[in-house]
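Complex record, three chains
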Amino acid sequence: MKGTNTSLPPTAGFGLRHPHVLDVISRPPAIDWVEVHTENYMVPGGPRLRQLDAIRERFDLSFHGVGLSLGSVDEPDREHLTRIRDLVRRYRPAALSDHIAWVRAPAQVGGASLNDLLPLPCTEEAVNVLARNIGIFQDATGCQVMVENPSMYAAFAGAELDHADFVKETVRRAGCGLLLDVNNIHVSAHNLGFDAADYLARMPFDAVGEIHLAGHAERADAGGTLLIDDHGSQVRDSVWTLYDQAIAATGAVPTLVEWDTEIPELEVLLAEVRTAQSRLDALPTGAGTAS
Amino acid sequence: MSTLLEIQSRFAAGVFQGSDGILSDLEDDGRQAARFEVYRNNTHASILEVLADAFPTIRTLLGEGLFTRLVTAFIRHAPSRANHLLDYGAELPDFIALSEPLADRPWLVDIARLDWARNAAYGAGEAAPMGADALQGLAADVLLALRPALVPSATLLHSDWPIHAIWMNADAMAESSIAPRSEAVLVARPAMQVQTSLLHPAEHALLRTLQDGGTLGEAAVAAQQTDPGFDLMTAFAGHLSAGNFTHRRNEETEEE
Amino acid sequence: MKNTSIKSLSVAAALMGAVGMAAALAPVDAVAADKVKCYGISKAGQNDCANKAGTHSCAGQSTVDYDGGEWKLATAAECEAKGGQQTAFDGVNEKAKG
């Protein structure tokens, strides 16, 4: 395990989604940890929290947020931070993360939530905003957090850094961990026309505390294809290849399979988890120790 | 080079208002408009899904097409200010009330309130139920002076329309016109399951009086005034054993 | 506070009877009972213990299915002028009762 940003076991788990919750409680699969979206538990009481209590008794937890809007020009919402802190106190997750993205419009124009992980321009200004907001996130929760590299469909003009340096610089300046999503690398590289292997090779491997895997969809686009990060199918071969390259560099890192749309039977998801685990198991001893 | 504030403001305007100022901020590869549409669609489709789950009866009554138009308009007029969507939709009933395309179906407003009450009850706070054993052996005047509160998840609804019947049979009622007939409903989640109960008018008077901070004595009188033949004993016993009451937090008549 | 009407005597009897009636039912830990129901059975969506409204994901949507058509809104004043039926919801038509 690398860094101090996670105490998750370096094994494969999956993103626990609503249709599987009751199955997982009544017939716990043989895995060590699951990940949930923090925002789905921001309620005062009721079954959601009780169910997560039951999950927590059996598994380590990773809290993966989608709503802090760390890339917003405004500082993170205080109430949102308080809710995260309260959940962290109740459930003691082994890892806490959010995204290199923005979700909420500037307060100056009303502050509406767009409920999507939106892209940032690769500028110094954006890196500074992210570093400031990640710092606030870490101070408010008392945790070293991880941020996830984005999947993108469009890029902004006027970039001052390239996509890999943008992520690297953000993690360095914020002093946080990196949640390395290899499917996002593949999707962004295809959509924006950069080299996925080169981007991956330039990631700060010492900061990687968790890896994400997921499927994506292909859609026709002017003169080619657009990849949509829909987490709606099995992990593609191209993404498994990138994953092998990633863990060769990081060593065994907690690895998560995400499946969010067209959610299959639990058994299908567990088969993906086993594939990831077998790749972790196949790592030679000492992999990733050289950097 | 635009500032981040300018970019994010124009991006949001592009998503919600359909303005195209943002396109000049994007890398010009001839596909930027199509690419921006992906983001626009993500926002609308994901929020549509959230509201479809929160308002299943409204969706059934309106059908997919009209429901989608309603939600698209709602997102534009009253977007979420919070970055979690568990509370998003509370204003949809009021929005329906003002929506001209739905003005010929006035029952939809109260149905939306019923859907919302059920959605809100699911994640509402918990409170220790007032048990019958705690009340046993109390002197009559002490019992009459008690002010039980409804559990935090409870919503009392009273409508000029048969909202419980519509909620139960939404599939069959999507196309039909509905005659006015008053109905009252209690939505509550005393333990883990959301309960939706049709209330006798006297039972509604009982619970309403308690919700407004009245004593058990006042509530019982209100119920009997509504219907002298009402079986107060069975109704109160039912709510008590269902766990629908809790102790009021302090002596102030504090409303949730 | 002090209510000594005949009516209150009869309601006192009914309420005390109700307490006895409710207490006679075996005490049930409702949360525990619901946990059995909610955790034990069936697929999600088939019971009231499962509700996914408001749940988030960090995935993109691969279908385009929204409609940006016009939607006309009345003002609240117009709504009231038409008889206010649109807002005949809980708490507003109190006068109509009792």
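Note: Chain C touches chain B through 67 residues (CB under 8 Å).
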